[in-house]
Amino acid sequence: QKDDDIEEGDLPEHKRPPAPIDFSKIDPGKPESILKLTKKGKTLMMFVTVSGDPTEKETEEITSLWQGSLFNANYDVQRFIVGSNRAIFMLRDGGYAWEIKDFLINQERCADVTLEGQVYPGKGAKEGEKVKNKTKPEKAKKKKDAEKNSKGIKEDNRATNQRDDL
């Protein structure tokens, strides 16, 4: 072995071989169990929205309390404020993401948590927004718009059978 070879643990995450998945632990009735096992050991980010109309400073304080509580429960979480009421929680081990999500949605000021494209409403969500486990509406809307645009382009770019004389 050469001295300049990098050990497996020191490789960047995307170059490390994936951890073997024990399929005996997967519950076919719960798709989250599959995600938990596939995200184990990988960095994962979740978006958290603070309810009400907080200032960026209030969001900083509230999410700091949540981060402290998670730290006390031995969860390694980094927090980044991305808006007046939004923050990103970055986890070194994505296998714990669903436990952290469960903690966050039970907080009074948590409007919702977005994890792997799923939006989970929190205690602080307005009654009309508490639709359990909905997908992001923006993604569905973008797909529909893209389909409409592609159909329109195909129809507009067809060659005509008639030949125009100049």
Instruction: List the total number of helices.
Output: 4
Kindly report the average pLDDT value: 75
**Strands, total number:** 6
Low-confidence stretches: none
User: Helices and strands: which structural class?
Assistant: alpha+beta
CATH topology of the domain at 51-121: Alpha-Beta Plaits
Name the quaternary structure. single chain
Strand line-up in the sheet with most strands:
2-3-1-4-5-6
Examine the secondary-structure arrangement and name the CATH architecture of the domain at 51-121. Answer: 2-Layer Sandwich
Largest sheet: 6 strands, antiparallel
CATH superfamily of the domain at 51-121: ACT domain
- Globally, the shape reads globular
User: Roughly how many Å is the radius of gyration?
Assistant: 23 Å
Top CATH class of the domain at 51-121: Alpha Beta
Task: Report the end-to-end length measured between terminal Cα atoms.
Answer: 75 Å
- The ordered H/E elements are HEHEEHEEEH
Portion in strands: 15-25%
Helix content: 25-40%
Protein name: LRP chaperone MESD
GO molecular function: low-density lipoprotein particle receptor binding
Organism: Struthio camelus australis
GO cellular component, one term: endoplasmic reticulum
